[in-house]
Specification:
By secondary structure, the chain is α/β, with parallel strands linked by helices. Helix content is about 40%, strand content about 20%. The protein has a single domain, classed as 3-Layer(aba) Sandwich (Rossmann fold), CATH 3.40.50. It has 7 helices and 7 strands. A 7-stranded mixed beta sheet has the order 3-2-1-4-5-7-6, sandwiched between helices.
C-alpha cells in the first residue's frame, strides 16, 4: 500500500506537500491555505480505509485533495466534499494529474447538505471548519455501519474548539472512541 504508490500519485503528494509547507511559512491567508494533514496521518487513514468494513468511504473537507490521495491507497471508491469552489477546482486538477479520477467522486458543496442522504458509511474522515464538527458528527454516527469508523482531525491542535464534540464522542454509547496523538490529534470512533 505504501511501497507501491504509483509515480503519478507520488508526484502529486510531493507537489502538495511543498505548497502546504510554503503556505505555512509565507503568511498565505487562512482560507487560501491548503491546511493538509501530515503524511503520517495520511498513512494511518489509508490503513484504516483498507481495513474498514464494507460500505462507503466519505471525506468532509477535500482542500486540494492530499488526504484523498492517501485514502485512494485502500483501492476503494471515495466521495469527498469541498465547500469552496476554488479548492474543489484544485482538487479536481490533483485527481486528474494523479490518475485517480475514476476512484474519487468530488462534490463541491457543504457536506452538511448531503450527509443526511448518505447511508452505510464504512469510514468518514472529518477535516472541515471546526464549527461544523459537532453537526457533522451528529449526521455521520447514525449512518455508520456496525464497525464503521469516524476519524476527525485536529482533536489535539484544536481541542478547545472541538471540546463539545470530543465530550459527546467520548461519552457516546453508540461508539467506542479515543483521541490518538498522531499528527494534529485524531478522534477515532468505531460504531459498536
Ligand atoms: C483542513 S482543510 C482539509 C485538508 C484536507 N483534508 C487534506 O488534508 O488535504 C479543510 C477544508 O474543508 C473545507 N470545508 C469546510 N467546511 C466544509 C463543509 N461544511 N463541507 C465541505 N467542505 C468544507 C474547507 O473549504 C477546506 O478546504
Amino acid at each position: 500500500m505504501f511501497h507501491d504508490i504509483p509515480p503519478a500519485i507520488q508526484t502529486q503528494m510531493r507537489r502538495l506537500e511543498a505548497i502546504d509547507a510554503h503556505d505555512r511559512r509565507d503568511g498565505t491567508p487562512h482560507l487560501q491555505r491548503l491546511r493538509q494533514i501530515p503524511p503520517e496521518t495520511g498513512r494511518f487513514l489509508a490503513l484504516l480505509a483498507a481495513t474498514a468494513p464494507a460500505g462507503r468511504i466519505v471525506e468532509i473537507g477535500t482542500s486540494a485533495g492530499y488526504s484523498t490521495l492517501w485514502l485512494t491507497r485502500a483501492g476503494r471508491p471515495i466521495t469527498t466534499f469541498e465547500i469552496l469552489e476554488e479548492k474543489a477546482a484544485l482538487a479536481g486538477e490533483t485527481f486528474h494529474l494523479a490518475g485517480v479520477e475514476a476512484a474519487v467522486t468530488l462534490v463541491q458543496a457543504d457536506a452538511r447538505q448531503h450527509l443526511p442522504e448518505i447511508k452505510e458509511i464504512a469510514l468518514c474522515f472529518l477535516d472541515a471548519e471546526k464549527e461544523f464538527y459537532a453537526e457533522c458528527y451528529a449526521l455521520v454516527i447514525p449512518a455508520l455501519v456496525p464497525g464503521g469508523l469516524l476519524v476527525a482531525d485536529n482533536a489535539i491542535s484544536h481541542a478547545e474548539a472541538l471540546q463539545p464534540m470530543l465530550e459527546r464522542a467520548l461519552h457516546d454509547g453508540r461508539v467506542d472512541a479515543l483521541v490518538l496523538p498522531l499528527g494534529k490529534g485524531l478522534l477515532l470512533c468505531r460504531k459498536v
